[in-house]
Amino acid sequence: MTVEIKAPTFPESIADGTVAAWHKQPGEAAKRDDVLVEIETDKVVLEIVAPADGTLQQIVKAVGDVVLSEEVVGLFAEGATAAAAPAPARAAAATAKPAAEPAIKAALEREAASVSPAARKLAAEQGVVLGRVDGTGKDGRVTKEDVLRAAAQKPARTPGPPVATITPPSPPVSSDVRAERRVPMTRLRASIARRLVEAQHTAAMLTTFNEVDMQAVMTLRSRHKDEFEKRHNGIRLGFMSFFVRASVEALKRFPAVNASIDETDIVYHGYYDIGVAVSTDRGLVVPVIRDADALGLAQIEEQIRVYGTKARDGKLTIEDMSGGTFTISNGGVFGSLMSTPILNAPQTAVLGMHKIQERPVVLDGQIVARPMMYLALSYDHRLIDGQEAVRFLVTIKELLEDPARILLDL
Questions:
Q1: Which domains does the chain have, with CATH numbers?
Q2: CA distance 5 to 140
Q3: Active site residues
Q4: Are 1 and 74 in contact (CB under 8 A)?
Q5: pLDDT by residue (tens digit) across 187-239?
């Protein structure tokens, strides 16, 4: 029985998608739940799997074609075995040259295996031949780490022996190579670019700064991290959970920072869905921790860990990144000392974390070295006044410098 392979149902925020890769070719057999095709949207890469054991019969939408919600992208024959090659193909095969060397043939077969979008993009950038990369992912899937390992093992090119010539020497030519490479933006990168420009044009965005002494949080974490990990089945205690909890408490006191603007209306949200920005090979994504006010530190850390793994493997869903009332971005993991984060519309504020660095500060009249972090709050001045933004950031600072205040609701 022939079944139509359709694109997923896109939410209202996504108009269409693009065929990123076909993992099966017409006539090729597939087992139930094998990935047939990947559809790239503005937010995520969606995988369409085989509905049953059978054979891919026809590709309707080729790589690069735009597809709409629930549009047919291919035809699948349930229960069918791999079809014989068409007559023209058989004739061509009969007159073709002898098969390539076994090593090259094996490499080509490996290259036809499933490759993650991140690995494919990285291989193109590094000049790595995917057919010569052994996949360590599920079912032999080539991952980003496999490509990086192959790139590190590439031998340096050595010049061949000199060739004699009787022509006069040419004038010296500069050895500098001014190479260029033009590649189209991915849909995610184009979407990020569009949203950032829209945020700059539509919001009255300002940024206020402060700094926080991280000594109390670091001491608390150092004292209890081993017991925390044992008690919560291997979940590690990081810094982000403290910032999420501190942000939630501050948002309760300043509802406008948790609100959004809808044309001429202000929408005050009675819940706290905190977006945590995650950097991936495809660009910045913001999965959302739902109802963060009802979660403990361990539950927050577990969600962050799960989202980080899914983002790295390209498995984040549209639901994972939909909504959100406030966003936290941590540029400190890359060494950023200070920055101005951009609003994640339609949210009205975003908190920027930065690198923890020992700096001299004055405590009780003495100059001492303390682990300090700069904080940045970018906010929409159309809704949030300057004094409100400053007080919000000061509240986060106070909660982090004395974490007991979070538990005692002070």
A1: 1-85 (2.40.50.100), 105-152 (4.10.320.10), 206-408 (3.30.559.10)
A2: 24
A3: 381, 385
A4: no
A5: 667 777 777 787 777 788 999 999 999 999 999 999 998 999 999 988 999 89
